[in-house]
Amino acid sequence: MSMKLLILGLLLERDMHPYEITLVMKERSMDQIIKLQMGSLYYAVDKLAEGGHIETVEVIRSPDRPDKTIYRITDKGKELMEQLILQQIKKSDPPYHPLYMALALSRYIDQEKVAKLLEERIREAEHQVNFAYQVYEEHISLVPRSSLHLMYGRYEHCLTELKWLKRLYDDVVAGKMSDKGSPIIDP
Amino acid sequence: MSMKLLILGLLLERDMHPYEITLVMKERSMDQIIKLQMGSLYYAVDKLAEGGHIETVEVIRSPDRPDKTIYRITDKGKELMEQLILQQIKKSDPPYHPLYMALALSRYIDQEKVAKLLEERIREAEHQVNFAYQVYEEHISLVPRSSLHLMYGRYEHCLTELKWLKRLYDDVVAGKMSDKGSPIIDP
DNA sequence: GCCACCCTATTCAAATTTGAATATAATAAG
DNA sequence: CTTATTATATTCAAATTTGAATAGGGTGGC
Q1: What number of H helices and E strands is found in chain B?
Q2: Which of B64, B130, B154, B175 is the most exposed place for a label (fewest CB within 10 A)?
């Protein structure tokens, strides 16, 4: 659903063809917030077009390349956008975290392997934190606060994740993952 | 994938039938970490059985109810488990957050509606934080640290989310979502 | 000058997830 | 006593996501 929302949001600014949407997404590092899968994008565009929420402006044909189909958002599309936004704000699935599951079971396997991988993860998480903060800082005077909240929120979530990974790592190398009885202490 | 991991993990403790797995999941509030959809569960069980990672122990037939098929994990299944755990730790997609997208676009629509929904969200988030903390506290002396990290991590993530929602809410009621130029301040 | 890789643009089959339907029994609420 | 909800157990069609395939053109390096 949030792919549809993204498409509608971008078409609000100007008419585009699907591939162009991917470019804009990358430019604005939106691909960090919503997974950019070509298949899903084209699928969502088709569905929106079927439903009359977006419509074809023109098809650009050139002999060597695939046709470009440029779309525009319709009034129906703008209504759908409002609905989708409200719907998304409303529904609050808890943040599912695939690593949680893996970590709970990780004590059954070779702790050295786990530690190695966690190190990599921590390094990546550090990059993500830095990057997210940079993106935030660079946009302070450029984008409306709604977008800024998004960037700052991403920074904070990444930071929370990083701290968690570090605690895990410490326990793994200390061989404590199977211990019982002691609470987790914040650094 | 993490559904398969969950199934393998639980079958490690004892043989079960799929429905029983759902019960254990709820008991341990694992349904907060991984979405519990019956369809997905049965699908994953079928796939695991097909691949020889789990096998049928017995089928209990009773006249009035559907048959219960009880499964056990195989050696091949234990190997798969190790692989899946390492794989999950390795791959680090950034935490996709569907609300981010919605919020970035929310300034285009009626701010009062947004504020109302955010209030509800905040209330829910508060419950989640409290619940997550309770779950953590109650398990301190009962489960190994690997599981405890999971619970504490969940608490922290929920807390980060809550703070974020509150900042958003403040800006929405102050009508600042379209403003530019000022940084986000932590409370 | 050619090899390898990235860019442009889209399509497709296969895997997976979703959401609801099925059918019966037990328990609770009024 | 009757109606509503919850528990038992699984299945299925439809929607969606994934991951890779396609196919020609441009670009940088050696």
Answers
A1: 7, 2
A2: B64
Kindly report each contact of residues A42-45 with a partner whose C-beta sits within 8 Å and lies 24 or more positions away, as own/partner.
A42/A18, A44/A3, A44/A4, A44/A7, A45/A7, A45/A18, A45/A71
State which nucleotides on strand D lie below 7 Å from a protein beta carbon: 8-13, 16-21, 23-25
* Nucleic strand C within 7 A of Cβ B160: no
What's the Å distance between residue A19 CA and nucleotide C3 C1'? 28
Q: Which nucleotide is nearest to A68 (CA to C1')?
A: C9
Instruction: Please say which residue of A69, A90, A111 terminates a domain.
Output: A90
The neighbouring-strand residues paired with A72 are A55
Domain closes at, from B36, B55, B90: B90
Query: Which residue is associated with the tokens 């691949």?
Result: B51
pLDDT tens-digit series, residues A125-155 = 998 899 889 989 988 998 899 989 988 999 9
What are the two backbone dihedrals, phi and then psi, of residue B141, each rounded to the nearest 5 degrees?
-95, 0
For the segment A47-75, what is each residue's pLDDT rounded down to a tens digit?
Answer: 999 999 999 998 887 766 777 899 999 99
List of chain A residues whose C-beta atoms are within 8 Å of the C-beta of residue B124: 92
Angstroms from B64 CA to nearest CA on chain A:
35
Same domain? For A124 and A80 the reply is: no
State the DSSP H helix or E strand holding residue B56, giving kind and residue range, or none if neither: strand B54-60
